[in-house]
Design a protein that fits this description.
The complex is a heterodimer of chains A (583) and B (250).
Chain A lengths: L5 E6 L3 H12 L4 E4 L18 H6 L12 E4 L7 E2 L33 H9 L17 H15 L7 E2 L2 E2 L23 H12 L5 E2 L9 E2 L5 E2 L25 H7 L3 E4 L3 E7 L4 E7 L5 E11 L3 H11 L16 E4 L7 E4 L10 E9 L18 E8 L18 H10 L3 E8 L8 E9 L5 E6 L4 H21 L3 E3 L20 E3 L23 E3 L14 H21 L5
Parallel strand pairs in A: 1-2, 1-13, 2-10, 3-20, 13-23
Antiparallel strand pairs in A: 3-4, 5-6, 7-16, 8-9, 11-12, 12-13, 14-22, 15-18, 15-21, 16-17, 17-18, 19-20
Helix pairs in contact in A: 1-6, 1-10, 4-10, 5-9
Chain B lengths: L2 H4 L7 H7 L34 H14 L9 H4 L1 H10 L30 H20 L8 H12 L15 H17 L11 H6 L39
Classes of the chains: A alpha+beta (583), B mainly alpha (250).
């Protein structure tokens, strides 16, 4: 028997679910939030005296438990997909706040060009510049249209940074390649450390445009427009994979979710694993989920919001037979289309022999960056690839198990290695590259035919591998990071043209920036949702998150995810009032 | 263990330190200098009983761990740090028992690289199944079990794993190579040297002291903000503090 109908049911309560819940409940709607993990028992106090690298960073306490639910991966359509049997390449969160609890806090806006990647590329380089099989698309929304929502997210989360473009006026010291902002960041940028100032100085000398990486780690106390006050960062160095004991890292559990709960109109249900939307092909009627005792529950609602991580948003649509399933052979259909990732590699490393840095101090987004080789900020003529990435040197805290680094040629173990780790633990510097991940016709998400989760439902199958365009991009990136490293001039340098492994490797951590599968756009035949993240095929169903990205940009995704969540919330309120399609 | 090793050490020699094993530890400063006899005191924590490993397995992995991070005149290594007990605890616990591993079938050999762990075995199963095969390889190749090999041969023996030269069928299967085992084992040794001491390794925080990691910043009141943007050295890099023990709130 179905439960009592509510205005809105949200699947997944992380950044997206939290933002939408806060906006809707404060407008008076009755909202139920279904969270597959815990809904309490983890707050700032719980993370005190808890700087435990093994528990959180190695044994993965805050992440999805792959024994119950994982994904399968094949590199091409002909291969048998194999399960990802333990976490490796990416680390989706679980429990209240989702990955918003354990992220680093690097909070970017995508470039205006990123939202028109296809059109901009064709306009500048011609259609022939897009390799066969590549399937990049425009977003169906422009940067200018999203700007107010970026602004709203940044002011809510208290993003620390230095604007490089306010209403078209370029500001040295900020990112002069960014799209125009309506105003300055809400919080002053984090400062430069001994380490990050080396990068800043070197990049400056080379004629590039360094600026402080935008950060959700507060350098000073901040009160946001919702009236939420958070304290300053202690630079403990335990951000990524950990919760913040100071509340300095913006986190949905310390910002938007309490606002929603305060209204009395937000009911949170923990250990509730949603798997399908009951629908008639035009309207979503209710959400089916397993409750804490494993029984199926049915929650009817006027509006249904999918706010889980990329994979489960897509899986729920596929399990519901809602929207046309993507066919990678013909390139038709939409649900599962354009799965993308983030292209890492192409970094350079350096070691000083007489200089030590306090590398164990830091915060997740404490960095200096350049944007000169991202997106289309540089001329790609003759380079043989499209796209680019951000180049950064950060100081996010060198937790020891994961931060031992030795120069090339060092023995992998034994006395010489032991001497080397002592010598270089505190004296290493790295310059990293985070590249775009363009879409391809073959890359997609669907339901695996063989493997199931602990409830008996099929796992998501990922079809993805590195392509020649990205290999060329990474080779190029390696020459740029090496150039900067040479200008930094440590005693030992390792770098040069970057390379990607023979195949995408699910066992090595790269990035929790999975995207696509329920992409946005202006055309129902090539996108799942419109520019308000409303489904073309069911106007009362909203699907929101990095799953909306038609392809991934050379920046961390959360800023854009937050902006989309605020835009979706506005759309949902409009829909609640007048119904119908919002575009 | 020799009687000599159990007596307080007055002087350090490579030989004595190697003999001292778990009882004798010397800490090091940033420059690798010994801090003096006081540092050689036996770890204050009681030696725990084994939870998963057999004595034979324990001695085997402890000796292998010593090859990764040796005890020498520069400072203590894996045995002194309790890496064997760390690994024992991990194999007995959730990780070793595969509590977060997806172990559902079907299993088959990957067509290409990049698929990670593709065996129905847990990490504890892998250790248990791998060590006898490796022992057999060592007896055949070098004529002795690992613990009886000299240090140079032990290094060679581990390199045989790392490079894949030693082909060790894991209980008759080739789904988990010797290089995979080496990667897994080396990672476990790093954890045992550098995780919080509450997990049984890194006793006396010897791993942290060696590299200059000051431990849990909360124990000194989260004061890094006063240092991170300055050139001011942080005075506690070689005086780490572990996470605060909790005795209960009642």
């Amino acid at each position: 028997m179905a439960l009592k109908k509510v205005d809105v049911v949200i699947i997944g309560v992380g950044w997206v679910g939290g933002i939408i819940a806060a906006e809707l409940t404060r407008a008076g709607l009755q909202v139920v939030g279904l969270e597959r993990g815990r809904t309490r028992g983890r707050n700032t106090g719980d993370f005190q005296d808890d700087h435990d690298e093994l528990r959180y960073a190695i044994r993965n306490e805050l992440f999805q438990n792959t024994a119950h639910e994982t994904w399968t991966l094949r590199h091409n359509l002909a291969e048998n997909a194999l399960p990802i049997r333990q976490l490796g390449s990416f680390l989706p969160g679980t429990g209240l706040g989702g990955a918003g609890v354990h992220w680093n806090g690097q909070t970017w806006r995508f470039h205006p060009r990123d939202f028109t990647a296809y059109t901009s590329t064709v306009d500048r380089y011609g259609k022939a510049a897009i390799p066969t099989g590549m399937a990049i698309q425009d977003w169906g929304v422009t940067y200018d249209e999203l700007e107010p929502y970026y602004d709203k997210f940044e002011y809510m989360a208290g993003i620390a940074g230095k604007a490089g473009n306010i209403k078209g006026n370029l500001i040295p010291g900020g990112n002069v390649f960014e799209g125009p902002r309506s105003r300055e960041y809400p919080v002053r940028a984090q400062g430069a450390t001994e380490l990050t100032s080396l990068f800043q100085k070197a990049a400056q000398e080379l004629g590039y445009h360094p600026f402080p990486g935008p950060s959700a780690n507060l350098p000073v106390q901040y009160k946001n427009p919702d009236g939420v006050t958070r304290g300053a960062c202690t630079y403990c160095g335990f951000c990524e994979r950990f919760g913040c004991e100071a509340g300095a890292k913006a986190d949905p559990t310390t910002t938007v979710i309490p606002l929603a709960l305060k209204t009395g109109k937000f009911e949170l249900r923990g250990y509730s694993s949603a798997y399908a939307i009951k629908n008639d092909g035009k309207t979503g009627q209710s959400v089916l989920y397993f409750d804490a005792s494993g029984r199926i529950q049915e929650q009817p609602a006027d509006i249904i919001v999918l706010a889980a991580y990329v994979f489960n948003n897509v899986r729920t649509l596929l399990m519901s037979n809602l929207g046309p399933k993507y066919d990678p052979v013909t390139g038709t259909g939409t649900v599962g289309r354009n799965y993308c990732y983030q292209t890492g590699g192409g970094g350079a490393s350096g070691w000083f022999t007489g200089q030590k840095f306090k590398r164990y101090m830091g915060s997740g987004a404490l960095s200096m960056a350049i944007d000169d080789f991202n997106a289309d900020n540089f001329d790609h003529s003759g380079l043989g690839f499209i796209g680019g990435g951000s180049i950064t040197s950060g100081q996010s805290g060198a937790r020891p198990i994961q931060s031992l680094t030795t120069p090339p040629g060092t023995a992998p173990f034994g006395r010489d290695w032991k001497v080397a780790i002592q010598k270089y633990y505190a004296s290493a510097i790295s310059v990293g590259f985070q590249g775009e991940s363009p879409a391809y016709q073959a890359h997609h998400l669907d339901l695996d035919p063989n493997y199931r989760d602990s409830f008996g439902n099929p796992l998501i199958r990922i079809t993805f591998d590195w392509q020649p365009n990205e290999r060329k991009m990474i080779a190029f990136a390696g020459t740029k990071t090496l150039e900067i490293m040479k200008a930094i001039n440590p005693d030992i340098i390792s770098g040069g043209p970057g390379s990607l492994p023979a195949h995408y490797d699910t066992s090595v951590y790269q990035s929790t920036h999975n995207t696509g599968g329920a992409i946005m756009g202006a055309d129902p035949s090539t996108s799942v949702v419109n520019s308000y993240l409303q489904m073309w095929d069911a106007s009362n169903v909203f699907v929101v998150g990095a799953c909306n990205f038609p392809q991934n940009a050379g920046f961390n995704p959360t800023g854009t995810v937050g902006a989309l969540a605020y835009r979706a919330a506005e759309g949902i309120l409009k829909y609640h009032k007048s119904g119908g399609s919002l575009v | 263990m020799t009687d000599e090793a159990q007596r307080p050490q007055r002087r350090f020699s490579r030989r004595k330190l190697l003999q001292a094993g778990a009882a004798g530890a010397a800490t090091a400063t940033a420059g690798g200098l010994l801090t003096g006899p006081a540092a050689a005191a036996a770890p204050k924590t009681a030696t725990p009983a084994l939870k998963f490993l057999t004595k034979w397995e324990f001695d085997f992995v402890t000796a292998m761990a010593e090859t990764i991070w040796p005890t020498d005149e520069l400072g203590p290594g894996a045995k002194v740090a309790g890496v064997g007990h760390y690994i024992d605890g991990q194999l007995a616990g959730g990780w070793g028992q595969g509590h977060r591993f997806y172990l559902n079938g079907p299993f088959f050999t990957p067509a290409d690289s990049g698929h990670g762990w593709q065996t129905p075995m847990t990490p504890a199963d892998v250790y248990r199944a791998f060590l006898p095969g490796y022992d057999q390889y060592l007896r055949t190749t070098y004529g002795k079990p690992y613990v009886d090999l000299d240090a140079a041969t032990q290094t060679q023996a581990l390199n045989d794993l790392r490079t894949g030269k030693a082909v060790i069928p894991l209980a008759g299967s080739t789904a988990f190579t010797s290089a995979d085992f080496f990667t897994l084992f080396r990672q476990n040794v790093l954890e045992g040297m550098l995780a919080d001491p509450s997990y049984g390794g890194n006793q006396e925080m010897v791993g942290w002291k060696w590299i200059g990691f000051p431990g849990d910043p909360m124990r000194r009141g989260d004061v890094y903000g006063q240092y991170v943007f300055t050139k001011k050295p942080y005075p506690y890099e070689h005086k780490p503090l572990a996470m605060k023990p909790y005795k209960g709130g009642m």
